[in-house]
Amino acid sequence: xxxxxxxxxxxxxxxxxxxxxxxxxxxxxxAMYMVSLTGNSLILWVVKSEPSLHQPMYYFLSMLAVxxxxxxxxTMPTMLAIYMxxxxxxxxxxxxxxxxxxxxxxxxxxxxxxxMAFDRFVAISNPLRYGTILTNTRIASLGLAIVVRSIGxxxxxxxxxxxxxxxxxxxxxxxxxxxxxxxKLACVDxxxxxxxxxxxxxxxxxxxxxxxxxxxxxxxxxVLTIASKAERLKALNTCVSxxxxxxxxxxxxxxxxxxxxxxxxxxxYSHMLLSYLHFLIPxxxxxxxxxxxxxxxxxxxxxxxRVGGGGIRDTQSH
Length: 318
Fold this sequence. Notes:
This protein has 318 residues and is mainly α. It has a single domain (11-317), classed as Rhopdopsin 7-helix transmembrane proteins (Up-down Bundle), CATH 1.20.1070. The protein contains twelve helices and two strands. It has helices spanning 22-49, 56-85, 92-125, 130-133, 136-154, 156-162, 179-183, 191-224, 229-237, 240-262, 268-293, 295-317; strands at residues 9-11, 89-91. A two-stranded antiparallel ribbon has the order 1-2. Helix 3 runs antiparallel to helix 5 (136-154), helix 3 (92-125) runs antiparallel to helix 6 and helix 10 packs antiparallel against helix 11. The longest helix is centred in the middle third of the chain and has 34 residues, at 92-125.
């Protein structure tokens, strides 16, 4: 039997059977990461640069952009190493660090989506008191609570996994390190780790998703009390971007959970692709959705780009 001290590497998995085209797959993968990093950075830049966007809704959007950047940065190193360099080995300590950040930013994203649902509820049900309820101090407190909650719940994960002995085939089933994936390679009883992981999932993703649904039930009740059909549609339209973000984040996760529980004979491709959808697609599409659907963001982004272009031309003319 070997233990974790003797095992210096885990081995990651790309898309099985497609090894010969990894070089080609790295092009769309790199494009996705570039869109994610550029789109979310632009949103942060626009919100910071435009005083008119210093409002609760845009502060929460900035939080979402930060978590998306963190999620992309967490999965990117091993993904690019596999598809660009065909490097599948990852040191145990690096693997444990990666899974900590992936799970932490994933929970942060869920928490931010919940606060954005609360923001929409307050904006629709109490529009006159919106600014007094969601003050800058309360928004900062919510942001701090999200960070403390996400980090605090996941600090035990790498510590507990580090202490486990690993005596089986050290091949992971994903292109990045995840808690349940590493845990199943241990050659001892991992019941405590499993219970801890289940507790974290239920107390975060489970609770957050239920509260988001509850928020929209209350939003619908409020909207139905509005007499004007045009005003009802206008109120609901402010929620479209957030609903898209929620669906992008939770739909692949629910599908992956259902396959793990009921689809024992499902192809490894389905696990891999749903995992990619869950961790890679939201950071790519969230800035696209918010730029398309939110007129203020779109107009300010175009305006800043024009001003920037004009500044460059003026500099060149001198």
